[in-house]
Task: structure prediction
Amino acid sequence: MDIQYLLFLQNIRMATGGAFDEFFNAISKIAVDIMPFLPFIVFWCVSKKWGYRYLTTLGVGELVNGIVKLTVCAYRPWIRSDLIQPAGDSKVAATGYSFPSGHTMISTLTTSCFTEAVSCDFPVAEGIS
Result:
């Protein structure tokens, strides 16, 4: 089932001639090249309290994510099926297991941290129901 869904998505990518490949590669590059600095920017420029919370949350998240990856051992789709052709340099850049997604984990934890920080710093939001 999952390979069929990935083949469906691959067919859409092929039908567009890879028009969106650069856009999605740029988003991935932001996650890899810029996001690691965000906790330190929060720590130094915004609030040490929230910087510590953010760093701790990401650290624990990375640890749990790594443990789950090693427990599940889900190989990348192009390793499981020769029909899958990844875009760009994914075969070289995307190493290790594929599930759970590190990108999803980081974006979820970042959103959670910022939501918590905003809701605590703006008590007016507590009265809104």
Q: What stands out?
A: Residues 48-72 form the longest helix (25 residues).
